[in-house]
């Protein structure tokens, strides 16, 4: 080997060494870089996971918890039996809840292959739309209502079908209640009716809803994602608490008589605004009857009772329909104002007797000349053409003679008179046990001047 060759070899070796070093250095660099990248990636992934956990835990937790609850528990309500409403005798039932059934499905518990079959059976038995039922049965929800308040025969038919077809899960037949009013129209406005969830919507049903409704119970099933029951005991019951019953002061017999004659009177006299009758026990204020005409059938509260409106019902706007029904449902006897007219002479008389201004039978105490002057205006007696002449208070009441009561009122004075209005309770509501009582309409005492006294025959016909 020549010297040059040796050197070349050396150089080559050296070069290789250098090259190897270079390669090694390069390799070390790449590893570092890789590790750094890996750490970054791991860090990013970890951050993402932690972020996601935080999001699930703190931001989205409630929603997910609810979703899991819905998925794992297939709970159904047990409706309590609403209290009964009795008349004053305690024997006649004015409102009662009958047991009916509500049909629900748990779609996740119905096998895919059975869905169409189940939907077909449900739509046939309960006369509901097949397509809608199929949608409900195929939904990814925990519970869907198919039919409410169905009678026993229908639910028995369904249960038989379930047995025959060996489909025993996913369809529930639960007890529910339906309100029934045995006397249909009797005392309709004061009793009121209930909505589809058995909640009182009108009258006593609404006012005493919290007492009548009771407390809803539950059937709870804890299931896994496939809808299989997890709880060993199967279903966990939270039983419903039935509502309290009510006994009214209203006597169904007296109410019936009042309604019969009110209706006759309204028809005979063509009372287009309807009419009201209240019958009270004067010893304790108990309301024995409160009749309103026209009334409606409590078992069909959304059927209008007016033939004219009924014939045009389909063309009416929702608002007009709602107003018409509200008019039909309201208790006229307590929500409408009505000018008492000459009946108020009794109040003026009572105040005058109590104040010792007059007595019942002082012969010739008063004189009707056919008119009386107030604040420069002559007010006529209704029998101005043949004046009543000399009268006692009793006679003046019998004759409903306006001039006598105007003169008594003037003796009483506005302030004393108003103190009696207040004592009689005319300036406040009666607080009757019914919803929708309107207040009275009286001028404020300080607004009553000579002109007001002159108008409306203040003392005689308030
Ligand atoms: Zn007179």
What labels would you give this structure?
single chain; about 450 residues; alpha+beta; Penicillin-binding protein 2a (Domain 2); 4 domains; three-stranded antiparallel beta sheet; 14 strands; about 15% strand; elongated; binds zinc ion
**Uncertain stretches:** none
How many helix segments?
17
CATH class value of the largest domain: Alpha Beta
User: Which ligands does the model contain, each kind named once?
Assistant: zinc ion
Radius of gyration: 42 Å
Total number of strands? 14
In CATH terms, the superfamily of the largest domain is Penicillin-binding protein 2a (Domain 2)
Question: What is the average of the pLDDT values?
Answer: 86
Largest sheet: 5 strands, mixed
Strand content: 15-25%
What's the CATH architecture name of the largest domain?
Alpha-Beta Complex
Instruction: Please give the share of residues in helix.
Output: 40-55%
Question: How would you sum up the global shape?
Answer: elongated
Query: Would you give the CATH topology of the largest domain?
Result: Penicillin-binding protein 2a (Domain 2)
**What is the terminal separation in angstroms?**
147 Å
Question: Which structural class best describes the helix and strand composition?
Answer: alpha+beta
Give the count of structural domains. 4
């Amino acid at each position: 080997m020549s010297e040059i060759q040796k050197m070349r070899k050396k150089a080559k070796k050296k070069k290789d060494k250098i090259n190897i070093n270079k390669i090694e250095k390069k390799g070390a660099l790449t590893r570092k870089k890789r590790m750094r990248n890996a750490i970054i990636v791991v860090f990013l992934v970890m951050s993402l996971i932690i972020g996601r956990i935080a999001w699930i835990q703190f931001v989205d937790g409630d929603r997910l918890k609810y979703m899991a609850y819905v998925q794992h528990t297939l709970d159904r309500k047990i409706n309590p039996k609403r209290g009964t409403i009795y008349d004053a005798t305690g024997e006649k039932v004015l409102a009662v809840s009958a047991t009916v059934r509500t049909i629900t499905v748990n779609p996740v518990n119905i096998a895919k292959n059975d869905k169409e079959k189940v939907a077909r059976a449900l739509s046939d038995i309960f006369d509901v739309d097949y397509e809608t039922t199929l949608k409900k049965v195929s939904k990814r929800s925990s519970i869907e209502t198919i039919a409410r308040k169905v009678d026993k025969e229908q639910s028995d038919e369904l249960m038989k079908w379930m047995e025959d077809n060996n489909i025993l899960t996913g369809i529930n037949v639960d007890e529910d209640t339906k309100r029934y009013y045995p006397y249909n129209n009797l005392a309709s406005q004061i009793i009121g009716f209930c909505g589809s969830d058995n909640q009182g919507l009108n009258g006593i049903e609404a006012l005493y809803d919290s007492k009548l409704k009771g407390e809803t119970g539950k059937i709870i099933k804890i299931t896994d994602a496939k809808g299989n029951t997890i709880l060993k005991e199967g279903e966990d019951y939270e039983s419903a608490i039935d509502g309290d019953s009510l006994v009214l002061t209203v006597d169904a017999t007296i109410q019936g008589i009042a309604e019969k004659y009110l209706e006759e009177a309204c028809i005979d006299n063509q009372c287009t605004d309807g009419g009201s009758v209240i019958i009270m026990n004067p010893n304790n204020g108990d309301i024995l009857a409160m009749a309103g005409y026209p009334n409606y059938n409590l078992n069909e509260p959304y059927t209008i009772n007016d033939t004219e409106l009924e014939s045009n019902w389909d063309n009416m706007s929702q608002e007009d329909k709602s107003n018409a029904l509200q008019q039909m449902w309201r208790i006229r006897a307590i929500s409408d104002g009505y000018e008492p007219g000459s009946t108020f002479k009794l109040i003026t008389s009572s105040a005058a007797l109590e104040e010792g201004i007059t007595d019942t039978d002082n012969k010739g105490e008063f004189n009707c000349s056919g008119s009386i002057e107030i604040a420069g205006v002559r007010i006529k007696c209704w029998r101005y053409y043949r004046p009543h002449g000399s009268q006692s208070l009793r006679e003046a009441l019998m004759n409903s003679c306006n001039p006598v009561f105007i003169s008594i009122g003037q003796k009483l004075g506005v302030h004393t008179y108003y103190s009696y209005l207040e004592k009689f309770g005319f300036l406040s509501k009666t607080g009757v046990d019914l919803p929708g009582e309107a207040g009275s309409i009286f001028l404020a005492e300080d607004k009553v001047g000579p002109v007001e006294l002159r108008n409306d025959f203040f003392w005689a016909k308030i």
